[in-house]
C-alpha cells in the first residue's frame, strides 16, 4: 500500500513540475484604445485551428485529467448522487399542462442518461411513454455515421389542444436544436425536421390557435466563427407538413425594414391565449426592458406587414401578459422592485396605467398569473425569502405557504380557469408542487416525482445574513452548513455566485451543496450586485462602470466569513460560470491572498475581447462598449486576464471550457490560464479542462454533469486541505 501511495505522490509531483515547462505558445499583439496601449500576450490562442494551440490545449487537458484522477475519493460526489438517484427512483421536469388537462413532462429514471417524454390525462391519469430521444436521427448531413449520438430534449411544447407536441433536441453541449413534431394520439413523428433554432433560450415555440403550426426564431448563421453569427435572426411561421427549408418569415429586420430592428437583437413573437386578437412582437436582448410591437392576428396570418410600436425600452415594461382586451405587466418606472399594472389593449397608456399592486419596500415582485379568481403573484425578499399573494376585488391577501420557502414558482391554466399551482423549495428543502384551492384556502400536494427523506442531510441548516460591503451597501449572504460546525476558522468554504444579467440566485434544493456541507464544509452564496435579488437597481449597480461592485461585494462576504471564524484565508474556493467569470477572475486577481482555489466554467475572463465571441449587442449592454472611451475603462477594469501580474501567488485554479461553446469562446479560458501559468509565483496547480464534446454547460447528460461536479468538489477539497482528499505523504 505504501508503495502505491509513493507512486501516486511521485508521479503527481512530476506532473506539477512538468506543467510549468509546458507553457503555451505566445505571440503578443499590442492594441491601442484611446491612447492606452494594451499588451495581449496570448492573442495567438484565439485561433483554435492553429496546430500549436490545439496541441497545447490537448496536453493541458490530458494533464488535468491525470491530476484530478489521482485525487483520493475524486468520485465521491458521483457515487453519492447515483446512490441518491437510485433511492428516489426517478425525477420529473419541464411539466406542461394544457387547458384540457393533458400533462406532458420529462422523466428520467435512475441509471438513465437522459430524460424521456411522458404523458397523462389529468394528474391522476395513467402515465404513458411518448418519446425516447435515443430514436432520433439528426437531419444534418455532417453527422458522423456509425458513432453513438446522445441527444438531449431541451424543450417540449404542446399545442393548445394537446394533439401535437413539438420537441427540441440537441447534443454535445450545442445550444442549437433540431425540432420534430409528434402526433400525441398515434405517436407518429412527422418526417420534417426544423433546424437552426434555439427555442430553449430564445423565442420558444408559439402555437397557432388552430394547432396547425407555430412561430420560432430562426438563425441564418449558426457558425460561431462567422461575423454574422446569431445576427439577422428571424421569426418564422411554420405549418406542420411544410418543407422547413422554405421559411415564411413574419418578423425580422430584413422583412420589416421600417421597424429599424437592430441586426444583433432577436425578434420574437409572444402568444398568450388561443383567442387573442393580436400578436405581440418583442426585440430580445440582455436587458429586461424591451422595445415591443403589436399586430392584428388576421393581418399577420394573411401576409400583411402592419406591425405598430407598442412601447419602448424607456417605458420600463417587464413580463407582459395579454388577457382579453387588457395588458398586464410589471412596471419598473420609478419602482425598481416593480409594481403590477394593467392597461387597455385597444388604447394603452403605459405612463399612467391602472396600478393593481404597488411597489413593496423590501420585496421584489417575481411573477404573477391571471386566473378566473383573480391575480396571484409572488415576491422575494433579498432573493431568498418568498411570499405568495392574491389580488381580488381590490383586496390583496397574503396566502400562507405550506412551509417557509426560499423560492416559489407559480403556474396556472390561464384566465378562464381557477387552477393554480406553486412549487416551493429552499436550500435544504426538496422542491414540492402544490395545487392551491381558493374555496378551501388549502394546498394539496401534487408531486409527479417521489419526495424522499435524506437522513444523511438532517443536520444541515441554512443561515441568511447581511454583510456590509466596502461602500456600506448591505449584501445578502446565504450560508449552508452542519449545525454541529465549530467556528474555529478551519472549515473549507465553497463560495458560488454570479452577479450579472439581473439573474437571481434563488434558493434551490442542491444535493451538491448538501454533500459539501455534510463533509464539514460551508457553502456560501453571496447575492452580489449585478444580479436581480434586490430589484432592477441591484442589477444596474453591477453593470459596466459599476461592475467592480460585484467582486467587491464578494470580497466583503469572504472577509465576513473569515472575521466570524467560519473559515480562514486560503480555506475558500470561489466558483462561478459564464459572466460569473468576471466575478471570480477579478476577485482572485484583486485579493489573491484570500482564496485557496478558484473554479471557472466557460467563464468571461478577457472582456476587452468579449465582442469577438459573436455575442455582440448582448455583451455590450451588460459589460460596455469598447468603442466608447468611458466604457472602455470599465471593460479594462473588469478584465481578469489583463490584471494578472508577474510573481503574485495566485490560488490553485481549475478552468473549464467547452469546445462547442457559442456564447463564451473557449479561448477566453485558455488565454487566462496560459497567462496565470506563466506568471504565478505560487506552485499551486493551474488546470485547464477542455470538454471536446461540450458547449456552454447546458444540455448535457446527467452522468456527465455528475462526473464534472465530482471532479470540481474533489479539486476544491484537495486544495482546501480536507483530509479525505489529500495525497498521502511518504517517508
From TrEMBL:
<feature type="domain" description="Peptidase S9 prolyl oligopeptidase catalytic">
    <location>
        <begin position="515"/>
        <end position="721"/>
    </location>
</feature>
<dbReference type="InterPro" id="IPR001375">
    <property type="entry name" value="Peptidase_S9_cat"/>
</dbReference>
<dbReference type="Pfam" id="PF02897">
    <property type="entry name" value="Peptidase_S9_N"/>
</dbReference>
<keyword id="KW-0645">Protease</keyword>
<dbReference type="InterPro" id="IPR051167">
    <property type="entry name" value="Prolyl_oligopep/macrocyclase"/>
</dbReference>
<keyword id="KW-0378">Hydrolase</keyword>
<dbReference type="InterPro" id="IPR023302">
    <property type="entry name" value="Pept_S9A_N"/>
</dbReference>
<dbReference type="Pfam" id="PF00326">
    <property type="entry name" value="Peptidase_S9"/>
</dbReference>
<feature type="domain" description="Peptidase S9A N-terminal">
    <location>
        <begin position="26"/>
        <end position="443"/>
    </location>
</feature>
<keyword id="KW-0720">Serine protease</keyword>
<dbReference type="InterPro" id="IPR029058">
    <property type="entry name" value="AB_hydrolase_fold"/>
</dbReference>
<dbReference type="GO" id="GO:0005829">
    <property type="term" value="C:cytosol"/>
</dbReference>
<dbReference type="GO" id="GO:0006508">
    <property type="term" value="P:proteolysis"/>
</dbReference>
<dbReference type="InterPro" id="IPR002470">
    <property type="entry name" value="Peptidase_S9A"/>
</dbReference>
<dbReference type="GO" id="GO:0070012">
    <property type="term" value="F:oligopeptidase activity"/>
</dbReference>
<dbReference type="GO" id="GO:0004252">
    <property type="term" value="F:serine-type endopeptidase activity"/>
</dbReference>
<protein>
    <recommendedName>
        <fullName>prolyl oligopeptidase</fullName>
        <ecNumber>3.4.21.26</ecNumber>
    </recommendedName>
</protein>
